[in-house]
Amino acid sequence: MTQLRPTDPRFTGHLVRPRLRIVAGVCAGFARHSGLPVTFVRTVTFVLALCGGAGVLLYGWLWATTPDESADGAAGSDPRGDRLPKAALTGANTTLPDNRNPQADPSAGLTPGPAVATAGAEADAVTGEPRRAPVTEILLGLALVGTAGALIANRLGADLPLDAIIPAIVALAGTGLAWRQFAELRSGAGPRSSGMLVRALGALVLVALGILLFFITSESPNVWTVIVAAMSVLVGVAVVVAPWAVRLTRDLSDERAAREREAGRAEMAAHLHDSVLQTLALIQQKAGPHSDAARLARAQERDLREWLFTGAANGPVDLAAELRGIATTVEREFAVHVDVVSVGTVDREVPEALLAAAREAILNAARHAGGSVSVYVESSPTAIEVSVTDRGPGFSIGDIPADRMGVRESILARMQRAGGTASVRPGPGGTGTEIRLSLPLDIQEDTP
Amino acid sequence: MTDPTTDPTTVAGIPCDLTVVIVDDHSIFRSGLRSELDPALRVLGEAATVDEAIAVVVATQPRVVLLDVHLPGGTGGGGAEVIRAAAPQAPSTLFLALSVSDAADDVVTVIRAGARGYITKSASGAEVSDAARRVAGGDAVFSPRLAGFVLDAFGAVAGETAATTDELDRLSAREQEVMRLIARGYAYKEVASALFISPKTVETHVSAVLRKLQLSSRHELTAWATARKLL
Fold first, then answer.
1. Would you give the DSSP letter of residue A190?
2. From the centroid of its chain, how far is CA A291?
3. Of A275, A282, A302, A324, which to mutate for an interface test with B (greatest number of B Cβ within 10 Å)?
């Protein structure tokens, strides 16, 4: 059982039921919460269960009131907020035993007694999957077997209180079915149809019927039996519905907390946007476009913007974002102002060669031209085009042939190898340099 | 690009003096911009909220309003609200939007309300002055970023091209070329020489694009801009 719980003080926060469970995870959760060995907890529950069923009651109560551990990614309705770190931590712990399932079997075998008694009729669940026992199905099966056994015993002459056993079994089956339906309703796993609700109501009716049967089959009805029957039905239905209602309210409050967190973050973003970004813009304006202060302010503005709007960023790989990152690092090293304008979105992997060539072009412009550099990205469904324009002194090939050879190698040849093209031409109005990179997207598929 | 004869305002005996009003809710930004502006630009007033801005613009009737996109007050409409409320009462006033945000929805909203151009707040005083002069001269001011928005919003990347010049929902091939060059950082004159057309023709194309941006019912201009926060 050691793989179930690390005796780590960090885990004694909320009482939650782990995903790795034998019956409903109450014992494991409690053990993790309290730091006691899980075997000990199970034994105590078993002993308590023998004491007039106290353990069973306690178990049921904890089951109803303890939330499921939020599964990472599995339970969509759970907020990812403050429980996330915990889920991540425990996720790391639960995946371990998952991978070596056999280890869970001896541990289950170690404590067959406690587990059997803990759940009473659910005993057979021990042999089920450690992750999630099909409790409801087992309950139903046991109820049917019990009914059959009772009927046979009755035929054979044994004096069994059938009029008590059959209603009890009906009520139990109804309870199991109802909880199962509620769990599905709550998780929203299946198609959220009215049919599910109808089934849940049907299960409740079954519960009521079972309780009523107690009174109808027993003796001749009088006023008191009717009243008691009515009260019992009400109480019975309430008992069945209560755990579900408790969980539902907890889900609701969790959702509300998540919304509040999101609202708080948005408010902070708006405030930063209004105040800090304005100040950074002012600094850039006052300090002149090419001063150190302006460059620092600009880098900070980019960082902040990136952070503020990450949630709104689109797609896993954004060429424009990559180029903005390159622009930021280049601006830190050189006295330049790199402006990135992007049009269209790239919804696929950006080829490394294009990025590398673009980085080289921006660096080249920063090194030789300085001033302001414009980067323009246009991604259409068929091709990606990047152009890097500077307003430097331009270039004459006679002046620096060796250096331009380097550019040729790292930009032109690289783009050709990737299946694209690159061209170097005079910039706008005949001043400066414009480097255009273009990559057809069909060819990209073939290149590794 | 300023043509003195097109400027109707004549202030203090200097005929080509350009009058402006600065609208921004940050006083530090207003004073900063004011000190950086070209001395040929005369600042008639400042305003910090939507209501103040409407009052000042109507009272002083400036040639150009340098208008922040985000403003408190009014009904929460920001710069766009100022334009809608003040423009009918100040017929000769033109609006140039200043924005710290690059969010497409902000820019598109204020342009559609009637602004003649958009420029980022990190632009230097000289750049803002130049933009104000161009707006006063009847041109539309497109920053590279706005040109990028336009190409995106009108589906130019996906190959949508207007067949006739009076089609509002798509750009003509020439307009796309102009926008592409502006997005690459070309000035109007440089666009003109690259496309072998006159600067006046470039201005005509840009004004046509601005008109489409203001009048088109293309759903990207409204829906797309709000869905995509940042470019």
1. S
2. 45
3. A282
Q: Tokens 């390159």 correspond to what residue?
A: A326
Q: Quick one: tokens of A222?
A: 């009088």
Ranked by mean pLDDT, which of A184-188, A283-287, B34-38 comes out on top? B34-38
| ipTM for this prediction | 0.77
Q: Is B151 on the interface with A (CB under 8 A)?
A: yes
Could you please report the per-residue DSSP string of B3-29?
-GGG----BTTBTT-EEEEEE-S-HHH
CATH class of B145-227: mainly alpha
Asked if pLDDT for residue A122 goes beyond 50, the answer is no
Q: Are B78 and B71 in contact (CB under 8 A)?
A: yes
DSSP state of A22: S
Q: Give A164's strand partners.
A: none
Q: Do B185 and A376 touch (CB under 8 A)?
A: yes
**C-alpha separations of A195 from A110, A243, B93 in Å:** 42, 21, 64
Phi/psi of residue A158, nearest 5 degrees: -65, 140
Pull the structure tokens for residue B106.
């902000």
> CA dist A403 to A136, A176, A335, A399, A400, Å?
76, 79, 20, 9, 6
Check if B130 contacts A (Cβ < 8 Å): no
For the segment B82-93, the average pLDDT, to the nearest whole number, is: 88
A421-426 vs A383-390, strand pairing mode = unpaired
DSSP string, B109-165: HHHHHT-SBEEETTS-HHHHHHHHHHHHTT--B--HHHHHHHHHHTTTTTT---SST
A chain contacts of residue B28, beta-carbon cutoff 8 Å: 279, 282
With an 8 Å Cβ cutoff, is B34 touching chain A? no
Select, from the ranges A81-90, A391-400, B79-88, the one with the highest average predicted confidence (pLDDT). Answer: B79-88
Number of independent structural domains in chain A: 2
Domain map of chain B by residue range?
Answer: 4-141, 145-227
Examine the pLDDT at A306 and tell me if it is beyond 70: yes
SS3 of A39, please? helix
Asked if B97 contacts B119 with a C-beta cutoff of 8 angstroms, the reply is: yes
Tell me the sheet residues that pair with A425. A434
What is the rounded average pLDDT of the residues B11-24? 70
Enumerate the β-bridge partners of residue A439. A384
**CATH code for the domain in which residue A375 is found:** 3.30.565.10
Residue A384 counted as domain residue: yes
**Each residue of A50-79: pLDDT tens digit?**
776 677 777 777 776 677 765 443 333 333
Task: Find the residue in B nearest to A430 (Cα).
Answer: B190
List Cβ neighbours of B27 (8 Å cut-off, separation of 6 or more): B48
Q: Can you name the CATH fold of B4-141?
A: Rossmann fold (3.40.50)
Burial state string for B150-162 with b = 16 or more CB within 10 A and e = fewer than 16:
bbbbbbbbeeeeb
User: Quick one: pLDDT at residue A409?
Assistant: 74
Q: Look at residues A130, A152, A171 and tell me which one is the last residue of a structural domain.
A: A130
Closest CA–CA distance from residue B100 to any residue of chain A (Å):
6
